[in-house]
Amino acid sequence: MRPKLVGVSSVKSRQWRPDELLDRYEVLTIPLGDDPDGEGAVEATLIRQAGAEPATAGTVLYVHGFTDYFFQEELAEFFHDRGYGFYALDLRKCGRSLLDGQQPHFTTDLEFYDQELNAALDVVTEESGSGDEPARVIVVAHSTGGLITPLWLDRLRRTDPDRHRRIKGLVLNSPWLDLQGDPLLRTDAVNLLIRGVGRVRAKAVLPQKLSAAYGESLSADAHGEWTYDLRRKPLGGFPVTFGWLAAVRAGQHRLHRGLDIGVPALVLRSDKTRFTGAYEPAVDTADCVLDVKQIAQWSGVIGRRVWAVAVPDARHDVFLSLETPRRIAYDEVQNWLHTIFGEGARR
Known about the structure:
With 347 residues, the protein is an alpha/beta fold. It has a single domain, classed as 3-Layer(aba) Sandwich (Rossmann fold), CATH 3.40.50. It contains ten helices and nine strands. A hairpin with a 6-residue loop joins strand 2 and strand 3. Helix 4 packs across helix 8 and helix 6 packs across helix 8. The protein is globular and about 50 Å long. The relative contact order is 0.13.
């Protein structure tokens, strides 16, 4: 069952209100109707900075990853400083959009997210465009969001060219393009097992828990420097269900067959991976969530114009890295913006 599309008119009737999590930000609820996965009514949340300067260069739409939500104010400020409007989307059952009784981040089909992505794109372009000229939108996405958004753009290019032509670029921050770990996990037999269990017991939880090393490397409550809501982004992550993992694997297999997102893309990743069950200082300068070799392997299949950059000593979220790699990551984005859009991306 496919959810009904939500248009900008059904969202405009809702009022922006102050964000409860970030000062100087405000949120807009996007109602999505009944959950195709049977968890009642679902909604998404669009976030923007209150009173931001008018966008002169374009607009950014940011999409988070698994066990994540938007709190990266420095990323928003980077784009604001260069004349871009900045909007972030907390997907259904994620972050600000998680409602009582719902499994965090649970979906059985990544395509369901098209509903809120389309609605958010409509709001962004309606608010940011001038006259008959729609806003130039750049999509920025992290981790699982970095899988969801190329699939969405590929579908838009084929089925919804009017929406697709509003999007002019894609920036992926450590996108989840393949299943990390032992090669056995990527065999046909294991894929069939994941798909089968995901079909009949979608909310069954995988027995292996996620390591808290990444969360502890980030959080100011542990070893890191970033402050965020641990209820919405717990150190050890949310439980991984078979239904959700089956949806991810289906998306990855589709991506591996080759996409055409139809716009230039920048893919950022760390230069190394460090998997560990517990925090150690080495995870502060490596991706301890995904295999960066897999990101390098699959980056080129998303489209025809892809810039792939390994950022030395970056974390899984390159924009939450230590100071030096973080600045390198921002410089790479700046260089890409200047290459693609020229004078429209000011320093």
